[in-house]
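To the wet lab folks,

You asked to see what we're planning to order before we commit. Fair enough. Below is the target structure as tokens, and below that is the sequence we designed to fit it. If anything looks off to you, flag it before the synthesis order goes out.
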């Protein structure tokens, strides 16, 4: 059985294990299931930091050593779970040096947000060196 349905008088939710999605209100809202185990290419905060209300910060992050050994630059994209931390992160091409890079984070709220050390922030992807130079041309 690949489906599990939860029905109430207000909403109907369907969990589709084959496609790894949750559907609410007859597909009005469809969301991917999140796995507990993060992939190895996740960038983590290298230290704890407080981001003041309605400000932007550039945070140092750690990337996987094996990934860093083979890449001098990478594309970093935000994890979907960042909304739980009340922050937003920009997708960016960033340099990698000794398995450290950085990410730009925005706190759009009216309160300070605290990020703990080793908090997963983004997913790193390889970028061919010539891809950036061709874009500049």
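Sequence we intend to order:
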């Amino acid at each position: 059985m690949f489906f599990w349905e939860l029905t109430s008088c207000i909403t109907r939710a369907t969990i589709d294990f084959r496609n790894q999605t949750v559907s609410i209100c007859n597909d009005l809202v469809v969301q991917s299931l999140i796995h507990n185990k993060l992939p190895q290419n996740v960038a983590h905060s290298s230290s704890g930091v407080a981001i003041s209300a309605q400000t932007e910060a550039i945070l140092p992050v750690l990337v996987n050593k094996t990934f860093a050994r083979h890449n001098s630059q990478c594309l970093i994209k935000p994890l979907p779970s960042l909304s739980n931390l009340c922050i937003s992160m920009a997708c960016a091409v960033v340099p990698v040096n000794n398995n450290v890079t950085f990410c730009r984070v925005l706190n759009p709220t009216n309160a300070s947000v605290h990020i703990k050390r080793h908090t997963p922030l983004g997913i790193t992807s390889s970028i061919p060196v010539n891809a950036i130079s061709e874009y500049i041309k």
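Structural context that might help your review: Helices lie at 65-70, 129-136. The mean pLDDT is 81.

Thanks,
Computational group
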